[in-house]
Write a structure and sequence with these properties.
Elements lengths: L22 E5 L7 E7 L2 E12 L12 E8 L14 H15 L10 E11 L4 H15 L8 E9 L2 E4 L3 H4 L8 E9 L5 E4 L7 H30 L4
Parallel strand pairs: 4-5
Antiparallel strand pairs: 1-2, 2-3, 3-5, 6-7, 6-8, 8-9
Helix pairs in contact: 1-2, 2-4
Bound molecules: adenosine-5'-diphosphate (ADP).
């Protein structure tokens, strides 16, 4: 809700400005996969399936020094009210690539030369923040598959609506119909131990001090997300799956 002077005074779902939507994660959702997981925030749901390492074909694509990570992201046709046309498009190709980069900084495939590890991310329900939910699900699925990882990675969308800094924008907040200055969306992925930023995109306008504050907010939020990811992995170790 935008106030008189274009200031976003109250979130549409009543959350505090720095509050993440309710999260849940589950490991081992696809029995036939080497690793799999789901990660949900509010109405956004992501599932990730890992297959590999397996020999990469065609042979000329192989790297004799290490395995290759290959990510494919897609929204299911029923994931939003308008039907999504199946198959790759510019947006899904961009998200696949940036997700690959975000995950590549934590996986170590040096023990698996000439192979590929495929990560399939699908979005059954989208309410903004699907690329970050996909990264959260994929990181858990990679750990579940036993892929060597230097550390975990967690991701969140932060940003600004009108003049207010917010964490975890939903679709209503991500849209451009706010009164004064519109909304700025910044997906950020942060590694668990070294706290490196492995993804950062920016859609909209923001000042440097506000941007720095957003990154701080993302770091705090990613600590919360990491707890949910680790708990999901512990649940499977405890024999729940
Ligand atoms: P992200 O989902 O990572 O926030 P975007 O900012 O591109 O990525 O998309 C924001 C939201 O817009 C999506 O989560 C989804 O709810 C909606 N959306 C994206 N693409 C489409 C589409 N082709 N048709 C309808 N809604 C879409």
């Amino acid at each position: 809700m935008a106030g008189d002077k274009g200031i976003y005074t109250k979130r549409d779902d009543g959350r505090k400005f720095d509050e993440i939507r309710e999260m849940s994660a589950e490991v081992g959702i696809v029995d036939s996969a080497d690793g799999s997981a789901s990660f949900n925030t509010g109405h956004t749901k992501a599932i990730a399936v890992v297959r590999g390492p397996r020999t990469l074909h065609p042979q000329h694509m192989q790297n004799p020094r290490k395995g290759i990570l290959r990510v494919s992201y897609g929204m299911m046709p029923f994931s939003v009210t308008d039907r999504i046309r199946p198959g790759p498009n510019r947006r899904s190709e961009e998200i696949s690539k940036v997700t690959e980069w975000a995950l590549n900084s934590v996986v170590d495939l040096s023990e698996y030369p000439n192979t590929v590890v495929d990560v399939f991310i699908q979005i059954p329900q989208a309410d903004a923040g699907t690329r970050v939910a996909g990264i959260n699900a994929a990181a858990i699925a990679l750990a579940h598959a036993g892929i060597p990882m230097k550390e975990m990675v967690s991701a969140i969308g932060v940003g600004k609506i009108d003049k207010t800094l917010v964490v975890d924008l939903d679709k209503y907040e991500d849209s451009d119909f706010h009164d004064a200055e519109g909304s700025t969306d910044i997906p950020v992925a942060i590694t668990s131990r070294t706290k490196n930023i492995s993804l950062l995109q920016l859609d909209g306008k923001i000042s440097v001090p506000e941007f720095k504050e957003c990154v701080k907010n993302a770091k705090v939020a990613c600590e919360e997300i990491l707890k949910v990811q680790m708990q999901a992995l512990k649940n499977i170790d405890g024999g729940n799956n």
